[in-house]
Design a protein that fits this description.
Shape: elongated
Organism: Paramecium pentaurelia
Coiled coil: 180-207
Order of helices and strands: HHHHHHHHHEEEHEEHEH
Protein name: Cns1/TTC4 wheel domain-containing protein
Low-confidence stretches: 1-15
Distance between the termini: 140 Å
Pfam families: Wheel
Number of helices: 12
Domain Cns1/TTC4 wheel: 247-340
Mean pLDDT: 84
Amino acid sequence: MQAMGLFDFLDGIPDDYVPKQRMTAEETEEAFIYLKNHPLFIDHIPEDIENYPELLALQNLQYDDTPVNIATSLLKNANEIMKKDGDKKYFQKKAYEVYTDAIEQDCGDKELMAKLFSNRALISYKQKNYKCAIQDCKWAIENDPKFIKPYFRCAQCLYQILHFSEALKFCNLALEISKEKEIEELKKLILQQIEKQEKKNEEEKKLQQLYAICNQKGIRMGPSKITLPPEYQPQKISLEQVSPPILTVPMLVTYPEFKQRDFIQYCSEQTKLYQILAPLFQTPLPWDQDQKYNLNNIECYIELDDGNYAKLNIKAKMLSIMQGYKVTVREFIEILLVCPGTNYYQKQFRSEYHILNDQ
């Protein structure tokens, strides 16, 4: 009896069928395309999945189960998508949709729901959609208060949107669950930012108080026009915390004849100008070879807001100087100091600077 071959058990094969040893190039290409697009061999989810009915059918099979099993399967699928390349928007979008499908199963398994919300929050965090991520983290915590990841993730998001106090709260809650190094490091960063914010708030509070008092005293304030050399290390105009508060302002003294400068850090509003300048002349100025500059033989000028210069009364108090001229007090006051008995004063100073009230 002749042995039966494979095709003897198959219906629909012609009696005269002769199997081919090789396919033509065209047949090989067709077979390759067919297998490449077959759901059993496909290695990625195509963007136009609606054009693949077989794949859609297989995908829909996962929904033919209990809500818990469906959500678990979807969680696994979404995680696999993120493992492929979770930093690419295409995979993030697909995974986000799958996590959302799983969440919508409302399976009742709180631990599973917490993982789904937490993982979806991670995608929102990667996309810098911090508010959505924060909400998902809070829903995750509601479902599983002992799950540490959403606490940490929520703290990360709050840190990014500069809500440092609330971020610290979630860090502390996470550390109550587990003393993780990564959480400790985030907490240090948050505390540093809180300290910076507190200092900034305190400086703004002082500045507001300073502006209010200057306004009461009839003194205008504004930003500095020039940048001082670093060696001066100037103090800005400030308030002495006494009752009533007293203004102190730094002073830049410029000697235009010699192109030299002195810097006085603290000048009280109650001090007269000559009293402030007196320490400069306790010894002769090193660049004044003729020694003509002294407290009894100098004139002082201040630049007004319009660019002109006004001569100052050196017996006047600093408060009256700041009040009595159309000048905006900036981080410091700059005055020009000249000696009227020099050739520079007679020949150059008047042409270099426009003096309004030369007396």
